[in-house]
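User: Hi! I'm working on a homework problem where we have to compare a predicted structure to a textbook description. Could you give me the structure for the chain below?
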Amino acid sequence: VSDAALWSIAVQSQGQHVAVGDSDGAVTLLELCDGLHIPGANEKVSVGQIFERETRREKNIEQSRKQAEARRAEEKSAASKATEPATGKLSAPETLQKLREEFFASVGIDPTTARPKHEAGKASSSSCASSASRAHEERGG
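Assistant: Happy to help. Predicted structure tokens:
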């Protein structure tokens, strides 16, 4: 159309004529052939179908993006829940105390009078020693 840069384009309402202006100020009038300005028999329907497909495609892409975001948000919240201590969970000493109480209740022993194993060992050895000393005294020793 021109060796200079195109500056403006104007199309006639029927689409048969096109005016093109360039940066030098020259205006060129073009007449388009019938194939370019007269719509074909199914052209309007075909173009409408193209636009509908693109609209559905854009909606599907947007829906996929939202699902991916929701999936990432769920994974992130699940990961943060896994790293945070859950409320309502007992600490290690509290858990140990609760298990101890449940055990003593199941075997029918009062947990307040039960002694830890290492104290029970000391008591039994000292009771053995006192029994031995009593036996020694009884024999006259």
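For your comparison, note the following. Strands lie at 6-11, 17-22, 27-31. Residues 43-83 form the longest helix (41 residues). Good luck with the assignment!
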